[in-house]
Design a protein that fits this description.
By secondary structure, the chain is an alpha/beta fold. Helices cover 34% and strands 22% of the residues. It contains ten helices and twelve strands. Bound molecules: S-adenosyl-L-homocysteine.
Length: 303
């Protein structure tokens, strides 16, 4: 901005910055996945990821520092939730990642699957997404945004009432009440039935098919009876299942499923006309999953 007086430019440089966050760490995996660890003004850290696949350029953003849901296999919730991210901190993750793209490439998709429970920070999340999706912002289509939730029924209904076109993904992870209580502790208060009702309501009001995420843990929820129960739960619904082979977290006792049990899940679900896909693991070498980079970084700096 050379049309501004020099003194003012110096003052702006000293006292003002476009970004509130700083990049503490930037990792690039052999598959091209970028992961940023951002430092917030209060010293807290958040993670976000940029993935490339065919023509897609997808960013994955966090909504909270830590997470209060306590899913037993997830690194983000190991130390609870510290605070919600502001709308600016959410938008900055998108901008920082977008700025890594070569100038001829554009962001095509956004998934809210980083650290934190997205719907526990609904207001800031929607304000940030409105900015990203606005023609004055990045102009990303609402239909290219996926909001992933542990399944908070009231918040799912509140999101539906806002009338946005986001795709909703519900982290189911278990087809029965007892197993879900064991893996997703918040389910004890909420109940599987209420989660499914709210998912049905979201589908009805948005017209968008809901995805159910299912992290596969060897010997825990990947057994033949689990695939049968999952098919039973979903066959009467217009739903999609995304199977996620577990990304091992240091210190947690879970393992990736055997390839045969992933194949069996796919076969059983398809035979009962439930649509299913298996999520590709990306960026494994850089701890790209779910709160793992922050954890490694904090372990390194504060043993
Ligand atoms: N709180 C939101 C967003 C979480 S992250 C939610 O629960 O959906 C997005 C997905 O990654 C969730 O389904 C989450 O359960 C899953 N996940 C968490 N840790 C994982 C791990 N180590 N390996 C594979 N998936 C994991």
């Amino acid at each position: 901005m050379s049309d501004l007086p020099k003194a003012l430019r110096r003052q702006l440089e000293d006292d003002w910055s476009v970004f509130a966050t700083t990049v503490l760490h930037h990792d690039v995996a052999p598959d091209g996945t970028d992961k940023l660890l951002l430092g917030c003004p209060d010293g807290r850290k958040v993670e976000c990821v940029l993935m490339a696949e065919d023509d897609r350029r997808t960013v994955c953003v966090s909504t909270q520092v830590g997470c209060g849901m306590g899913c037993v296999f997830c690194a983000s919730g190991l130390k609870g939730v510290e605070r919600n991210l502001t709308r600016g901190e959410i938008v900055e993750q998108v901008l920082r990642l977008r700025n890594l793209l070569p100038s001829e490439e554009r962001l095509t998709n956004l998934v809210v699957m980083g650290m934190g429970e997205s719907l526990a920070n609904l207001d800031n999340l929607v304000a940030a997404l409105d900015r990203v999706c606005s023609p004055d912002g990045l102009g990303l289509g609402q239909r290219r945004v996926t909001v992933s939730t542990v399944g908070l029924p009231e918040k799912m209904r509140a999101l539906a009432a806002l009338g946005r076109q986001y795709h909703l993904a519900v982290s189911l992870h278990a087809p029965t009440e007892a197993l879900r209580n064991a893996l997703v502790p918040v389910n004890e208060k909420v109940g599987l039935g209420a989660v499914m009702d709210a998912a049905d309501a979201y589908f009805q009001s948005s017209g968008r098919q809901v995805t159910f995420e299912y992290v596969m843990l060897r010997g825990v929820n990947d057994r033949p009876e689990d695939s049968a129960a999952l098919a039973g739960l979903l066959e009467a619904r217009k739903a999609h299942v995304n199977l996620i082979p577990y990304n091992p977290v240091a210190g947690l006792p879970f393992e990736r499923p055997a390839p045969e049990s992933v194949d069996r899940f796919v076969r059983v679900l398809r035979s009962r006309r439930v649509s299913v896909s298996v999520r590709k693991t990306k960026g494994r070498e850089i701890d790209a999953a779910c709160g793992q980079l922050r954890r490694r970084f904090e372990a390194a700096v504060s043993p």
